[in-house]
Specification:
This protein is an alpha/beta fold. The protein contains 9 helices and 21 strands. Strands 6-7-8-11-12-13-16-17 form an 8-stranded parallel beta sheet.
Amino acid sequence: MTTRNGRSIASSVNPASTSVTLFSATTTGMPFSNVTSGFAMVFAFTALPSTWKVGVCWCVWRHDKGHAFHMMSLTVQLAMAMAAAAGRPASGTEGWAHGWDTTAAMTFADFNSNKILTDAEAQFVVSKYRVVSLEKCTGIGSGVKTEDAIYSTALRLKKLDPSVKVFFYFATDQQGISCYNAGTEYMAHPEWWLKDDNGNVVKHGSGSPIMDCSNPAAQAWWQSVPLRGDGNGTFNGVPVTSIIDGVLADSAGWGHYPNISDARLEALEDAKFAMLGQLQAKLSQSNGVVMANGISMYGPPNADPRAPTNRNLRVLQFTSGIMNEHTAVFECVNAQNASFNLETTADDLQAIETAAAMDSGSKMVFVQTWPGLYAATSFTPSAKGPARVYPPVANGGEPTPQNNAQWMAALREHFGFAHALFLTVAAPNVYWFYGGYWYPSTSGIVGCPEDPTSCPSPPEWYPALTKPLGAPLGPRTLVAPYVWTREYEHAVVRLDLVQPNTSAVTFK
């Protein structure tokens, strides 16, 4: 029996009879509702497995302004209890769950290495990350197309550490397609390009035509590219599915394109999700994952009008993974006073927990965090002016870093908040990224062992990552408006969205 904010919750699991009971009593007069309605909100289906017995629970999901007890913590517990009763771990796709010894066991990186990694850099990657996504245009500075750079790098990483998982980045809207061998084929098929209702080609900001996901031939082509290898499903004689553990599918959500009707936009999203599901089915044969990007805190018109508050979690009906790229940045930031949009950020955390609990915790969730309150994307100085990512100093923002030394200082300064945020919502199927900016390896994501001053990665890396952590002793607890704590075997976490600099992971 546990008590949270005056509400008592009890759950029991009987593995012998493979039954689960979860029920709740409230001392404040909050209404009861049948658990199946809350279950359906999270797991996207209403029929409970016949061996699972579920009572009633308090299913009020949120109150206003962060004061309500969060039902999601109970949902996570329910998912874990159900899976335990069914005799399997509630920890994600088989072989993907991380342990709890240290936070280093939970690390994820998504980066573009303009040049092929040196041996020292490759060794750094496998020593610091458990999951690695290799981005568009990787290797292009070495004269290597993206597919070949990803395959060859994956082979090298797997040779150094076979347990490292490697993702192949491939956008549904064809960002960076000119860097791929497959780009020539794509550009030779204008019938695969998306046209608006007036027949005009719709282009990505980079100028490349966006793919029409409703075109069956384009769908088949897109699914084939990550697994082609040398053309026969192998790379240098090695099966691609033995070196590529998944595909990071960027722009895997609602596309709001001008001059296209809502009905067509809905059909395009449905076709895109079906395409993702077909690729997931292929990858599932080798325990692979499609990581959809991803969780979205944007509302209409940049959200599916059929489910405007779903945060794009519907995609998890088709894929085994999802990424939260904008965690506590951009739409979560109020640039007018350099603070968090508190409700949006709180909803973002809840969306992560919702995703992690879906299908009894079998979905993989990848959380990206960043050093500070990003409100813009001018990450480096240019002819147009200095770098600008934080809210203006006049509005209370901090100065944006302009060089490696300043970025290194920012990475160190903001690590504590990012670490606390992740551990507040961590689960066995949730991995964590912390880096400088989109998406060069040299922005603080990969170290520079041959020349530590040539990039902003702290040479000491982050000592807290390797301190003993231990399993969580329970879910996060709301202790004040937008302030949560969570206890682990060897640490206590405090996340404060009102005063973020007070957030910390304190080791016992």
